[in-house]
Amino acid sequence: MPGRARTRARGRARRRESYQQEAPGGPGAPGSATTQEPTQLQQTPRPLREEVPVVRPLQPRGAGGAAESQGVKEPGPEAGLHTAPLQERIGGVFQDLVVNTRRYMMHVKDSKTGSEGAVVQLLTNHFRVIPRPQWVAYKYNIDYRPDIEDGNLRTILLDQHRRKFGECHIFDGNSLLLSRPLKERRVEWLSMTKDKKFVKITVEFSKEIRPTSPDCLRYYNILFRRTFKLLDFEQVGRNYYTKKKAIQLYRHGTSLEIWLGYVTSILQYENGITLCADVSHKLLRIETAYDFIKRTSAEAQAGNIREEITSKLIGSIVLTKYNNKTYRVDDIDWKQNPEDTFNRSDGRKITYIDYYRQQHKEIVTVKKQPLLVSQGRWKKGLTGTQREPILLIPQLCSMTGLTDEIRKDYSTMKELAKHTRLSPRRRHHTLKEFINTVQDNKKVQDLLQLWDLKFDTNFLSVSGRVLRNANIVQGRRMVKANSQGDWSREIRELPLLNAMPLHSWLILHSRSSHREAMSLKSHLQSVTAPMGITMKPAEMIEVDGDANSYIDTLRKYARPTLQMDDLEG
């Protein structure tokens, strides 16, 4: 189960009892004229998906009479964390009920410890969070009027009021997590964009959050992603990579560059919170999409050159370095070029050349080149609707991935594997360097200490067992697994015990996935013959690409003799 799904599932198991308290600024809030006695524990159950009710922030230590007489000051940059009293911490600590009940079952104990093989100590790619944070944070919902879709612009507009909420904060684009409550339950701030337009920001208190709640774990991950920027990593897609240790290769007339990066996730595992980290690599070709178009055009045989370029370029992933975003090429617009105009959000017309110069400081030198079309991504909650196409300039797009010529070259693929498929020892060394860098960087530590977040530099160790090699029986032959527990190569050319022929099957694919669909068809035909499977060519059907078109096509071609269908999106 993916980490996010696991977090959501754990959230459904949280306690159904809660303290019904008031929000900041109410009668019982710090700074009010009167105070109320703590309310009693409410035993009324709530629906599982109901949001935790609005609660009154706990009063900071030593703020009793002073807060009542003088009011609460707005937090400054020096504002620290608010520690929850021990008694309340125990009552509110989030527990994973599935883990905490199953681990006491006898058969689960046995299945986790095992009985065969030799016992060994294993190092995981997890680092404990020490000590366990014991503070209370305050979540505020943020609303923009007029609405702002750009996440970076949302952050810039909110930062104009940083002195009002302090340095100790985490912002995810829609909500703000603070270590201290604001004076008012609901406030409105006015920000200004670069083009002198005003935006009203509404900040409204939502709830208190404990450090072990699923919501807080999500904020932990947002906070840790900020450390990558302090370490001069660049975000490409969802992960962060560094150019400092880039590895360059030159193969088949193409320069390749491998960037080192990391994938991280902070989640609750059994009785503790850990940072899970793994090594990732990004492969870039030192070649723009315009260079690729020129090279393909020069190498093309007599015929329709545009069709050949389109067939090779559609489905590729390109990287725009001015914003470090990746896009999938879905089409090529041969009728337009960078000198054409489009309408901006304010209705003014502007050429693509002027837009990229003003917005991204990029100079387009080749004016007669087609535009790449990417359908982009659906907005949250709008899956299945018509997507707004994005037009890109080939000269500003870097190619990613491997060409067919490189994939077929065994020596090149072996060289790439040497740098990207790390042995356990090299992976351990690379992750150790990463966690030490996090610990030694003063800016990173200052950021993490704001939220009392500290990581153990030692890998989390667990007990494991080494089992003896197993015998694998396939068909009428038996092979033995190697010491690595892998037997895929040994059984690749063994016939199955009872091979079923495949005579009637379909491959449904979108236009942009035509190359992948043909590759799948070719690979299936090559691997099924040694296994004794008789396979007739698949019927290739092109669909529009949305979910409804796949469903309609399946209904149209469904028949009793149909054995299998494969979908390529």
What is shown here, in short?
The protein has 569 residues and is α+β, with helices and mostly antiparallel strands. The strands form eight sheets. Strands 5, 11, 12, 13, 14, 15, 16 and 22 form an eight-stranded antiparallel β-sheet that branches.
Walk me through what this model shows.
Mean pLDDT is 78; it is low at 6-78 and 85-99. The two termini are 22 Å apart. With 569 residues, the protein is of the alpha+beta class. The longest helix has 17 residues, at 214-230. It is built from 18 helices and 28 strands. The strands form 8 sheets. Strands 5, 11, 12, 13, 14, 15, 16 and 22 form an 8-stranded antiparallel β-sheet that branches. Strands 3, 6, 7, 8, 9 and 10 form a 6-stranded antiparallel β-sheet that branches. A 3-stranded antiparallel β-sheet has the order 17-20-21, with no helix packed on it.
